[in-house]
Amino acid sequence: MIVASVISVPQLIVFIVSVVIIAIGGVGLLTARYPVHAALFLVMTLFGVAILFIEEGAEFLAAVQVVVYAGAVVVLFLFVIMLLGVDREEIASFAGDTVRVGLAGVGVVLILAELFVVATGAWATGAHSVAGKLSSGSNIGVLARSVFTTYLLPFELTAALLVIAVVGAVILSRRMGVETTTLDSSPIESGRREVEQ
Amino acid sequence: MGSDPLLTGHITWMVVLIVVIKVVVAFIALMVSVLLAIWIERKVISDMQNRIGPNRAGPFGILQSLADGIKLFFKEDLVPERSDKFIFKLAPYLSVIPAFITFTLVPVGGIVDIFGHRTELQVADPPIGILLLLAMSSISVYGVMLAGWSSGSKYPLIGSVRASAQMISYEAAMGLSIASVVLLTGSLSTRNMVTQQLGTFFGFIPHWNIIRLGVIPFLVFIVAITAEVNRPPFDLVEAEQELVGGFHTEYSSIRFALFYLAEYMNTITMSAIMVTMFFGGPDGPDPQFLHWLWPVIWFIVKTAIFFFIYVWFRAALPRLRYDQLMDLGWKVLIPVMLVWLLVVAAMRVSRPLGFGMVGLGIVGGLLLYRAIAVGRERSASRELARPSRAKLEPPQDRREDRGDS
Fold it and tell me: What is the predicted ipTM?
């Protein structure tokens, strides 16, 4: 077989296991009836992708994947789901809505076509593979060097953007907090005055 | 994978067997130390509170936690009717497994020969090293959070929401303090952290990170870690006076035992991580006989000391209020650690720059403190100037009036 000559058996096993995890997670995410279950399936998919990253020798990306996506982003999803109390059965679905189903189908076909082109056509990308193993040095070192030299400006701009977002969120939430306390406390206060009178 | 000499060459069945043995031995050692740790904790706390403590099962009651474990194992296993069954059963494992995986990172001893293969005395030495600790501590949030949510009951839900907010808040301070160690080591691997700390200053002061980094990262780390594993005085998650039993109120039998196990595994692991990061790991005086054994003994002694400190915390400190907890995390630990990270980075460049950065940090901190105080006074006087608002909303909100602690 061609596949067997390119990658070794353990690698193939790891690949199959992680792809199965990713696929179950993805399908489960779409079909889960409860939002919390859907979020957990998302975590499963993220883990599968992290395993693939490790197999490709990108350990740092795998760790970041788990720390940032599984550890922060999905926890935040869960937090919102629990606090807003939407942890009930989700009935909204667009089965039967022909236009939306059609659009989703077109999207899937386009993605599959792009994957086919990337996988088979060296003429499209100029290389047989768009990704490859790093040639030298530890991969954290290589990553750090490129982030702090070649891509320093985008990196710093992203940092500034994130700070602006955090400050904005704090200001918005505090202003909302002041308004709601005034709104909430006034009827209580007037009610208490009536009682006193 | 990693820098373990065992895995650099050709991978034979023997190598796989050694890895399996290491995993099993580490797991059993951790289990036994959990049994002992629970007994030690109960005994020490009893002593500090002028009680006797467990003294029936075995000599000095040393078999007490074994007896408790057997009892819990044979108790009836309840699953509440309104719970989410699958997640309810899944949650305890999400607490235990990260606790064990974190322990695999810890270098227990030096490099030894087993069956003719040279290997490091630690289960795994991946190149991402300490990042795995961060990853696992973010996964263990799921265990607590899902346990509380899936119980289908109010107190566990409140406990788990508190827990997740607390764990996420303190992860930031913990990450920054780890970053300062990584900055000094120049590597993420725990083995490199330990080898970097070998040697002494002037022949007698150990060359450990706690001295090389100044004491501040260690203090931030120990506070952040205590909050991260929900140990007293940060055990708001299971504050029994307010929340019955916190996130594991509805758990019974072996599932409850798993949470209990996870808590002690985490405590021991974090003591071990602290020893690795700040106290030289297995580093210590080495008499020339039994060359491989001494590092292990030093490691165990140091870890035991930190475990004892945790127990001491529990006996000595009252639980924090929730707003104090959040203030400590966000307004004290994170700013202090951010400034200290800059100081460490500057010290790496040159000493004058480092001391300059210390001065800059102090001046900046004072300015910021003054600015916040002025802002508070202004808003307080504005509140007083508007009689209607002042009456509706007294300005001395509990969270607003403190500024120093």
Answer: 0.77
